[in-house]
Amino acid sequence: MSTNLKPTYRRILLKLSGEALMGDEGFGIDPKILDRMAQEIKELVEMGIQVGLVIGGGNLFRGAGLAEAGMNRVVGDQMGMLATVMNGLAMRDALHRAFVNARLMSAIDLAGVCDTYNWAEAISLLKSGRVVIFSAGTGNPFFTTDSAACLRGIEIEADAVLKATKVDGIYSEDPVKNPNAELYKHLNYHQVLEQELKVMDLAAFTLARDHNMPIRVFNMNKPGALKSVIMGEDEGTTIDNLTE
Ligand SMILES: Nc1ncnc2c1ncn2[C@@H]1O[C@H](COP(=O)(O)OP(=O)(O)OP(=O)(O)O)[C@@H](O)[C@H]1O
Ligand SMILES: O=c1ccn([C@@H]2O[C@H](COP(=O)(O)O)[C@@H](O)[C@H]2O)c(=O)[nH]1
C-alpha cells in the first residue's frame, strides 16, 4: 500500500446532522459527540484542508414539526434557523477548546453573538486556515440546512459537499424503516431525483445537480469514516454527474 496518500479534497463543505449531535438523548447536544467531531475536524485542518461547516437543527427545533403542533410555519422555521445558530455556537466553542481557529457566521443578523454571513470574508478566512461555520441556514423559511449546505458549498467553490449523517450512505429505501434496503456506492443526480431517495431534500439535490457539486453521504458515528472520505476511500455513497 502506498504511504504517500494525499487528501482528495482541497476545500470541503461538511454538513453535520443536528439530530446526530444529540446522541442517545431525545433533545439537545451530547458533549462527547460534539468533542469527537471537533477532533475529527481538527485532523482535517492539520492536513491543510479548508473546512466550511453547516450544522442542522433537528436536535432542537424543526419548523415543520412545530407547524404540525399548531405554530405558524414561518415562526417555526425561524426557530429552526436559530437552533442551527445554537449548534454553531456549541461547535465553535468545541473547536476553540480543541485549539482550532473557527468563525461562526449567521445568515440572520445577530450582532454581538456572531458575524453576519459574508461571502468574500468567508473565502478569505478559509484560505487562512480558519474553519467557517455557516449557521441560520439560507436565512429563509421553507428551506433546510441540506439546501444551505449545497448553497454555501457552491458559493465557496468547495470540491464537494460531505453529508455526515446517522446511516452509512444512501439506500434503496430508508434503512431505519427497512433494514434490508440496499446501500448504493455511486448514484447520479438523476437517479436520486427520479427515485426520490430522501436522505437529503430534493431542493438541495437539484441545486447540487445544476451546479455540478458532488455530494458524499457517510455515517458520522463511524469512527474514521470522515477521514476515509477525505482520502478518497470507498466510504458511503457518492452522487455526481459522472456515474451512469
Ligand atoms: N433512501 C435513504 N437512504 C438513506 N437514508 C434515508 C433514506 N430515506 C430516508 N433516509 C433517512 O434520512 C435520514 C437523514 O438524517 P439526517 O439527520 O442527516 O437528516 P437531516 O434532516 O438533514 O438532519 P438534521 O435536521 O438533524 O440536521 C437518515 O437518518 C435516514 O433514516
Ligand atoms: O434555510 C433554512 C434552513 C433551516 N430552516 C429551519 O431550520 C430547521 C432546522 O434545519 P434542518 O435542516 O431540518 O436540520 C428546519 O427544519 C427549518 O425549520 C429554515 O427555515 N431555512
TrEMBL record:
Residue ranges of the region described as Involved in allosteric activation by GTP: 23-28
Substrates-to-products reaction catalysed: UMP + ATP = UDP + ADP
GO biological process annotation, one example: 'de novo' CTP biosynthetic process
InterPro entries: AceGlu_kinase-like_sf, Asp/Glu/Uridylate_kinase, Uridylate_kinase, Uridylate_kinase_bac
Enzyme class (EC, first level): transferase
Annotated ATP binding sites: 15-18, 58, 62, 165, 171, 174
GO MF entries: ATP binding; UMP kinase activity
Quaternary state and interactors: Homohexamer.
Family classification: Belongs to the UMP kinase family.
The protein's name in its UniProt record: Uridylate kinase
Organism: Thalassotalea agarivorans (Thalassomonas agarivorans)
The encoding gene: pyrH
